[in-house]
C-alpha cells in the first residue's frame, strides 16, 4: 500500500494529519520545516493530509494546496473522506517514497521535535519501528482515563508486545519493515493495527518519552465510542490471527 521507493526518493517522508486543522496548518508546517533544519534533515518530503467532508466548510484542503506551492518538498493530499483517521493516514502513507516513513497529528499536541529525535534514534540501526510514549499529559482526565483503559486492555489481550503506549505519535518505520505490513483500518484502530503488524512480523520496536500538550486549536475527536471501536477491532484481529 505504500508508494514504492524510486530513484531520487528522499531519506525521510513525514505524513502530517491535518484534518480540520485549518489555519493552524500553516504554523505547524513552519514548525516542521524549522525542526528539519534544526536536526540537519535536508533530504525529506512533507505530505500534508487535508482530506475533508463535503459541505463541512473546512478550509484545510485549500490551505494544504497553497502550502504545497511554497516549497518543492511539500506535497498535499486533499480528497473527499471515505473514512476517518485510519483512512486519512493510509492515503498519506500511499504517497510516501522515503527510506524512513513517519507520521504525526498536525494539531500541535505532539511536539514536532519528536520527529527529529526519532530520526536520530532509528538511524542507530537497531530498530524497525520507533515511537514515543507519553510520560506527561495535558489533555484532561477523560483522555488520560481512556488511554489507561485502552493500553491496559491492549497489553492484556496482546501479550508479548513490548510497547508502553500504543497510540502515541509520532511513529517512524523503516520502509523495508513497513512494506511487510498489511493495513486496512479506516478509523482510530490504525495505530493499534500498526503495532499488531509489528508484533506479527517480530519487528524490533524502540520508544522514547514525550510530553503530550493540551489541545488548543479545536475540540478532541476522541470519545468513549473510540474505546468500543478499539475493543471490537482488537477482538476481531485476535480472532483472525488464530487462523493465520
Helices and strands, with pairings:
Elements: E1 12-17, H1 24-38, E2 44-49, H2 60-68, E3 74-77, H3 85-93, E4 100-105, H4 113-122, E5 129-137, H5 141-157, E6 171-174, H6 175-178, H7 190-200, E7 205-212, H8 224-241
Parallel strand pairs: 1-2, 1-4, 2-3, 5-7
Antiparallel strand pairs: 4-6, 5-6
Helix pairs in contact: 5-8
Helix content: 25-40%
CATH architecture: Alpha-Beta Complex
CATH homologous superfamily classification: Spore Coat Polysaccharide Biosynthesis Protein SpsA, Chain A
Count the E strands.
7
Order of helices and strands: EHEHEHEHEHEHHEH
Shape: globular
Residue fraction in strands: 15-25%
Low-confidence stretches: none
Structural class category: alpha/beta
Radius of gyration: 17 Å
Q: In this structure, how is the largest beta sheet organized? A: 7 strands, mixed
Spatial ordering of strands, largest sheet: 3-2-1-4-6-5-7
* CATH class assignment: Alpha Beta
Describe the model.
The structure is a single chain. The protein is an alpha/beta fold and 244 residues long. The chain has one domain: Spore Coat Polysaccharide Biosynthesis Protein SpsA, Chain A, CATH 3.90.550. It is built from 8 helices and 7 strands, in the order βαβαβαβαβαβααβα. The chain has helices at residues 24-38, 60-68, 85-93, 113-122, 141-157, 175-178, 190-200, 224-241; strands at residues 12-17, 44-49, 74-77, 100-105, 129-137, 171-174, 205-212. It has a 7-stranded mixed beta sheet, with helices on both faces. Strand 2 (44-49), helix 2 (60-68) and strand 3 form a beta-alpha-beta unit. Helix 5 runs parallel beside helix 8 (224-241). The longest helix is centred in the C-terminal third of the chain and has 18 residues, at 224-241. The protein starts with 11 loop residues before the first strand and ends with a helix. The mean pLDDT is 87.
Amino acid at each position: 500500500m505504500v508508494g514504492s521507493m524510486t530513484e531520487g526518493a528522499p531519506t525521510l517522508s513525514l505524513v502530517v494529519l491535518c484534518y480540520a486543522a485549518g489555519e493552524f496548518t500553516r504554523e505547524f508546517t513552519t514548525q516542521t520545516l524549522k525542526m528539519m533544519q534544526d536536526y540537519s534533515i535536508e533530504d525529506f518530503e512533507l505530505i500534508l493530509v487535508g482530506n475533508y467532508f463535503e459541505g463541512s466548510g473546512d478550509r484545510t484542503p485549500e490551505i494544504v494546496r497553497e502550502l504545497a506551492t511554497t516549497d518543492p518538498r511539500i506535497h498535499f493530499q486533499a480528497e473527499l473522506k471515505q473514512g476517518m483517521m485510519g483512512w486519512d493516514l493510509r492515503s498519506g502513507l500511499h504517497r510516501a517514497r522515503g527510506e524512513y516513513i513517519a507520521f504525526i497529528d498536525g494539531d500541535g499536541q505532539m511536539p514536532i521535535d519528536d520527529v527529529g529525535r526519532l530520526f536520530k534514534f532509528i538511524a542507530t540501526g537497531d530498530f524497525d519501528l520507533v515511537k514515543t510514549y507519553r510520560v506527561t499529559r495535558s489533555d484532561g482526565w477523560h483522555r488520560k482515563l481512556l488511554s489507561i483503559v485502552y493500553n491496559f486492555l491492549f497489553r492484556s489481550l496482546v501479550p508479548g508486545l513490548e510497547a508502553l503506549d500504543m497510540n502515541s505519535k509520532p511513529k517512524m518505520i523503516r520502509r523495508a519493515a513497513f512494506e511487510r505490513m498489511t493495513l486496512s483500518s479506516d478509523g482510530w484502530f490504525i495505530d493499534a493495527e500498526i503495532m499488531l503488524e509489528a508484533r506479527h512480523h517480530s519487528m524490533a520496536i524502540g520508544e522514547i518519552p514525550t510530553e503530550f500538550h493540551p489541545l488548543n486549536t479545536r475540540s478532541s475527536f476522541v470519545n468513549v465510542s473510540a474505546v468500543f471501536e478499539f475493543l471490537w477491532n482488537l477482538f476481531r484481529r485476535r480472532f483472525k490471527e488464530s487462523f493465520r
